[in-house]
Design goal:
His-Me finger endonuclease fold, Znf_C2H2_type, two-stranded antiparallel sheet, 3 domains, GLI_C2H2-zinc-finger, 3-stranded antiparallel beta sheet, zinc, Znf_AD, single chain, Double Stranded RNA Binding Domain, alpha+beta, about 10% strand, repeat, 19 strands
């Protein structure tokens, strides 16, 4: 077939092969057209395999718009399902994830060619898609924008005055602080916590009931929140951008790395206010404090029993199951709980 543009059917110079032309994202023009239109685009399908430069740019813009819409749709769905606080925290963490993955770009110098200056430039609004959140500069590419944003840091961080979180930029700190300033009329019936959104309360109450409605399509794991499922899915793709400087371990989330680093330093910053015990993890302190208070916030949904930790509740729920997955290595007996198996081995085989 004569060399013409597959999209507009026009003849022009500089036709590009839609299967070979790839961007930094490693997505071909053919894949972009397929995802944006829903049409099958296959090599050797007897249709033109070339595209003109103008239609190529249109395809890239359409694909970029589709990706942006998908990201914003996910954000709005999370606001609907889990509340603005959780959605905002996820958004900030995704931003930090992107900065981690583009670490090499952060260290490259910014050149004058990358910058789009001047109020008189009529094309600024159409060309500059990346705008600095700390000053008025705009950039044509994400890499140039990231390198410029690095100039605002100078090793500084912006701590939240209401909690222990730290942020790279003042703008993200301001967005985070909104979650502290909101009224919190929705109170948990299992503990003393309250929330700004009813949907956030519903997500929180699952920590007490043990409900985990978000299921991974690639393994048997389930999660309380859709954001937890999204983070888990990264593990299937092998994405672990947070690297320990003391050993070879890597992590999918920044705070997992921060927790891990305490195993090297021996730091135990979480002190019990009622005894002398200290803990490396805040969660371990919270579980310990329940020993003093007698609080048992994790309620079984199938009987009246309640427990001090989620792990204990999960183990208890095996009692209600018919599955007996803990098998004795010495005889044919099997049990619903690990501790029942341990007791059996001590009594019968030792």
């Amino acid at each position: 077939m004569e060399q013409i543009c597959r999209v507009c059917l026009g003849r022009s110079e500089g036709l590009i092969n839609i299967f070979d032309a790839r961007r930094k994202t490693r997505v071909s023009i053919a894949e972009m057209i397929e995802q944006c239109t829903g049409f099958n685009v296959r090599r050797g399908d007897r249709f033109p395999e070339t595209i003109c430069p103008a239609c190529s740019e249109d395809a890239k813009k359409a694909f970029s718009l589709r990706q942006t819409c998908e990201r914003s749709h996910q954000f709005y769905c999370q606001v609907r399902d889990e509340g603005i606080e959780e959605a905002l925290c996820t958004l900030l963490e995704e931003e930090d994830w992107e900065f981690s993955e583009d670490e090499d770009k952060w260290n490259a110098p910014v050149t004058d060619d990358d910058d789009i200056e001047g109020d008189d430039n009529k094309e600024v609004d159409t060309l500059a898609t990346f705008e600095c959140r700390d000053c008025s500069k705009r950039y044509k590419s994400k890499g140039a924008w990231l390198r410029h944003m690095r100039t605002h840091l100078n090793g500084e961080s912006f701590p939240c005055q209401f909690c222990s979180k730290n942020f790279r930029f003042k703008a993200t700190l301001k967005a985070h602080i909104r979650s502290h300033n909101a009224e919190k009329p929705y109170e948990c019936s299992h503990c003393s916590k309250s929330f700004a959104q009813q949907s956030t309360l519903q997500s929180h109450e699952r920590t007490h009931t043990g409900e985990r409605p978000f299921k991974c399509s690639q393994c048997a794991k389930t999660f309380i929140k859709s954001s937890d499922l999204k983070r888990h899915i990264r593990t299937h793709g092998g994405q672990r951008p947070y690297k320990c400087t003391k050993c070879s371990k890597t992590f999918t989330r920044k705070f997992h790395l921060e927790n891990h680093l305490r195993s090297h330093t021996g730091e135990r910053p979480f002190q019990c206010s009622q005894c002398s015990k200290t803990f490396a993890l805040k969660q371990h302190l919270k579980e310990h404090v329940r020993i003093h208070s007698g609080e048992r916030p994790f309620q079984c949904s199938q009987c009246s029993k309640s427990f001090g930790t989620r792990t204990t509740l999960r183990e208890h729920k095996l009692v209600h199951s018919e599955e007996r997955s803990f098998k004795c290595p010495h005889c044919s007996s099997s049990f619903k709980q690990r501790r029942t198996l341990g007791r059996h081995i001590l009594q019968r085989h030792e």
